[in-house]
Specification:
Layout: E1 2-10, E2 14-16, H1 28-36, E3 40-44, H2 45-51, E4 58-62, E5 74-77, H3 80-90, E6 93-96, H4 100-106, E7 112-118, E8 126-127, E9 135-143, E10 149-156, E11 163-166
Parallel strand pairs: 1-6, 1-7, 3-4, 3-6, 4-5, 9-11
Antiparallel strand pairs: 2-8, 7-10, 9-10
Length: 169
């Protein structure tokens, strides 16, 4: 099973302030919606509760609390390992979508990173972990918006780095 990871961070590495994302960059969330459409997402409970169940996605929610869901597209697991075991029987691709502890735990197992860096320094208490040296930048595209952002794809062992600058129209 392939594991991808998708996150947005500020220039200083912040990905959250409590349950909230401390910015809104026009267009940036469209990347998340496009890439995760019809995919399985692996998330922590707090991340799931802050985003809710988006349509046309399946969720594996990891929690140590008594959280449950009646939604048929949401499976709840007590540990990351049990979630991965079950997901390997349901799909060949999972997108790790937060939060900070889930990212930190699964980064060593991830094949591809989809990472947006928003051009601000944000206040927050949740940070994206350092990208391991085993990853190579495979693609980069800069977007001009109300808050500019840079979208990158990192892969283990990739060589090429295409760059594109875009102004949303």
């Amino acid at each position: 099973m392939k594991l991808s990871l998708m996150a947005a961070r500020s220039k200083n590495g912040v990905i959250g302030n409590g349950p909230d994302i401390p910015w809104r960059a026009k267009g940036e969330q469209l990347l998340f919606k496009a890439i995760t459409y019809n995919q399985w997402l692996l998330v922590g409970r707090k991340t799931f509760e802050s985003m809710g169940a988006l349509p046309n996605r399946h969720y594996a929610v990891v929690t140590r609390s008594g959280f449950t869901s009646n939604n048929s597209k949401v499976l709840v697991f007590p540990a990351i390992e049990s979630a991965l075991d079950k997901l390997s029987t349901l799909t060949d691709h999972v997108i790790v979508s937060g939060g900070g502890e889930i990212y930190k735990s699964l980064l060593p197992q991830v094949d591809t990173l989809h990472l947006s860096t928003v051009d601000i320094k944000a206040d927050g208490d949740v940070f994206f972990p350092e990208i391991p040296a085993s990853f190579t930048l495979a693609f980069e595209q800069k977007f001009e918006s109300d808050i500019n952002y840079n979208y990158q794809i990192w892969q283990r062992g990739c060589i090429a780095v295409p760059r594109h600058d875009v102004t949303p129209g």
